[in-house]
Amino acid sequence: MPAQTLSVAGPVIPGQDLVATLITSGPLEDVAAALVRTEHYRRKGEREMLDGSNNTSAAEDAVDLLMYAAPVASTDEIEVQVVETIELGAVEGTREFRLRVPADAEPSAPDLIEWGLRVIRDGHAEAPVEVTTTPASADAAKHDGTGDDAPWISARVPGGVLAVARGQRLSGAVVLEPTKGGSLTGVRVAVIRMHSDDAGSREETQVVAAQVSGPLDLEAGVRQELAFALDIPADTPPTCVTTHNARHYWLQITAARRLRKDARNVVRLYVAAAR
After folding, report:
1. What gap in Å lies between CA 98 and CA 106, rounded to an integer?
2. Residue 213's beta-bridge partner residues?
3. 196 Cβ partners below 8 Å, 6+ apart?
4. Is the separation of the CB atoms in 184 and 257 below 8 Å?
């Protein structure tokens, strides 16, 4: 079989074409290329009966309840899908071709999602594909800097959409619009990552935080804006919602109060893979 080399030009944004080049040392009669999506996830274990079955129907009486053993541990799973294909036909020498990446494709994230291009049938070559997102990928309606927990606290950023690329600085202002007077001992912001999966796990991680202000007096109906800046680490995994996983980011704004419960609002933050 002729030697084959497959390469893909640079990262690609969902909804755009990837450009690939196949080089062969001899003729191939019937060639196709496939864009392949691989997802890593954990599957929740089923409860196992003492008799070895996994019957999870409701028990009829107390005797049946005694048949249940401890839940089986979750398992690591891999789901592989062919997302798009293109017919290349006969190929000899160098062939450049394009393949559209779906508009809803998730960004590449080694722990969750991998993308690859494979040459099939007479061809046998493959190359990784880096699918990337930008701040423009954020849903403006969902990332408007507002939240429901304490509506008088919000965030404002240039452009109005709370989105940032990893490795970049998120700059904006905490907006305070109190309906009652009072005082604060300080205002703090933090970027929080939340990851949930099919196994039922929920992991919360603080990525970065900063103190925005010290003691502050509030006056009913008077708006105040407090500037903040947060540097998002370059190795921060991007926002990614898949079939089996959900990785979201939130900007948590805390207004600390003396002798009272702190006021806190969390607003959606989109972390893009690239600028």
Report:
1. 19
2. 187
3. 202, 203, 245, 246
4. yes
Angle at 120 between CA 114 and CA 126, to 5 degrees: 40
Contacts of 214 (CB under 8 A, 6+ apart): 185, 186
What residue ranges define each of the domains in the chain, with the CATH number in brackets?
4-43+72-129 (2.60.40.640), 135-272 (2.60.40.640)
The residues, ordered by sequence, that sit 6+ positions from 251 with a Cβ below 8 Å of its Cβ are 145, 155, 162, 170, 189, 190, 191, 192, 266, 267, 268, 269
Tell which residue, 40, 34, 31, 5, has the closest CA to residue 129. 34
Q: Distance between CA 133 and CA 238 in Å, rounded? A: 8
Q: Which amino acid is at 222?
A: V
Query: How far, in Å, CA of 150 to CA of 90, rounded?
Result: 63
Q: What does the pLDDT profile of the chain (275 residues) look like in tens digits?
A: 889 999 999 899 999 999 999 999 999 999 999 999 999 988 876 555 555 555 544 444 444 544 454 555 567 889 999 999 999 999 999 999 999 999 999 999 988 999 999 999 998 999 999 999 999 999 999 999 999 999 999 999 999 999 999 999 999 999 999 999 999 999 999 999 999 988 888 899 999 999 999 999 999 999 999 999 999 999 999 999 998 999 999 999 999 999 899 999 999 999 999 87
Q: Which amino acid is at 268?
A: R
CA 35 to chain centre: 20
